[in-house]
Design goal:
With 332 residues, the protein is mostly helical. The chain has helices at residues 3-11, 22-31, 33-41, 53-70, 75-79, 88-97, 100-104, 112-123, 134-147, 151-158, 162-173, 183-204, 209-214, 224-227, 233-240, 245-261, 269-285, 296-302, 308-322. This is TTF1 factor.
């Protein structure tokens, strides 16, 4: 299949495929297109976002079955083959012979790459090592000075995951201020978000940039769904200068909540009780088995046009404060 045809057929399942690189499109055409078509016949849509508990169990089942089929003795060897140079050739041959890509993604209507990354996160023992010690932080700074941002190399030296070392270094290097945000810092954050969003919109939809330029930062200046797309927080952190990425993300969500609610006190007093009841009723009517299955945008529109993150956090607070032993209960 030629590249244009592959991109055209994938667009039915992945609307943003036009923004994906040619090499990734070729891989998706080989690994995903037939799977997506099979799921479509079954009336199952391709999913993105947070993995459900059911999907996590399916990944675990797929990995365990592949290990049993091939005789590879651990998920870590299967998913982090480069950590075992002496066994690397044998493992790669077994993965090719027994169609690793097809087996690992069986029963999960998502792009293969996302399933693979999720499996690596689930089975990486380096993901669950707790807080960094002072010694580890010093080592991380030394390794970064030697190897730059080669997080794969540094993660091997540190026995931590790639994401963990990258984010921890981002936190360490920042001239972090833990106090209240100043007006200057807040303005820097808003300018940084506006800048990265402008760049993103120029790439995806050039016509929408004009309204962004003409708008006032005191108003909500981008369509609501755009505001919730993933943002490059480490890039925003660099532009702000005095806060690390997690603080920037939390502050931005706080700004969104404040701006988009327009000061309306939806969850206070008698009307607040009714709003909570409406939220619970609407959630129950979705018949979702997991929080990740809820369309939070539709839900937030239905109960008053509140920001998605605000509704999610309100539900979480209700759950943990009002439902005894909630961790042991099903979502419904």
């Amino acid at each position: 299949m030629d590249l244009d045809t592959a991109r055209q057929e994938l667009e039915e399942f992945i609307p943003h495929v036009k923004n994906i690189s040619d090499s990734s499109v070729r891989k998706m055409a080989g690994r995903d297109l037939m799977r997506f078509k099979e799921f479509k016949k079954q009336g199952i849509a391709v999913k993105f976002g947070r993995f459900t508990q059911k999907e996590n169990k399916q990944i675990q089942k797929n990995v365990e079955e592949f290990l049993s089929l091939t005789g590879i003795d651990s998920a870590e060897k299967l998913l982090f083959t480069s950590r075992y140079p002496h066994d690397k050739d044998i493992i790669q041959r077994l993965k090719t012979e027994h169609q690793f890509c097809e087996k690992i993604s069986e029963g999960i209507p998502r792009p293969w790459r996302l399933i693979y990354y999720r499996a690596r996160k689930m089975f990486d023992s380096n993901n669950y090592k707790g807080r960094y010690t002072k010694e580890e932080k010093e080592k991380l700074k030394q390794y970064q000075a030697l190897h730059g941002n080669d997080w794969k190399k540094i993660s091997e030296l540190m026995s931590r995951s790639n994401l963990s070392v990258a984010m921890k270094f981002s936190e360490i290097r920042s001239a972090t201020n833990y106090g209240a945000w100043t007006k200057e810092e807040t303005q820097k954050l808003m300018n940084a978000v506006k800048e990265v969003m402008k760049k993103k919109l120029e790439t995806e939809n050039p016509g929408s940039v004009l309204s962004l330029e003409q708008s006032n930062m005191n108003d909500v200046w981008i369509e609501r769904e755009q505001l919730y797309q993933p943002l490059p927080w480490t890039e925003i952190e660099t532009k702000v200068g005095s806060r690390y990425w997690r603080q920037c993300k939390q502050k931005w969500n706080s700004i969104l909540t404040s701006r988009l609610t327009r000061g309306q006190q939806f969850y206070r007093g008698t009307s607040g009780l009714q709003a909570k009841i409406n939220l619970i009723k609407r959630l129950y009517e979705t018949k979702a088995e997991d929080a990740s299955e809820v369309n939070w945008d539709d839900l937030s529109n239905a109960i008053g046009g509140l920001p998605r993150t605000y509704v999610q956090s309100k539900f979480y607070k209700l759950k943990v404060s009002s439902v005894p032993l909630w961790k042991k209960k099903t979502f419904s």
